[in-house]
Write a structure and sequence with these properties.
Elements: H1 2-8, H2 11-23, H3 45-54
Helix pairs in contact: 1-2, 2-3
């Protein structure tokens, strides 16, 4: 469902399902930061927070 809602641009539902996946310790979250389908939510601070909580390396942001 996460990827379907990402395709529709429904960020609120994407994060609702990502939080559920996090609570369930879903293994697919290990690929969270490289899945291009989730580009729609990468700029949202909740995404960085989730990446941190999962324990994935911090993303490198381009220099301004």
């Amino acid at each position: 469902m996460i990827w379907a809602y990402a395709g529709l641009g429904d960020k609120e539902r994407v994060f609702a399902y990502l939080e559920k996946a996090y609570d369930e310790r879903a293994g697919r979250l290990a690929w969270l930061d490289i899945d291009p389908t989730l580009d729609v939510v990468r700029s949202d601070p909740r995404f960085d927070n989730l990446i941190r909580r999962i324990g994935l390396p911090a993303r490198q942001r381009p220099s301004p």
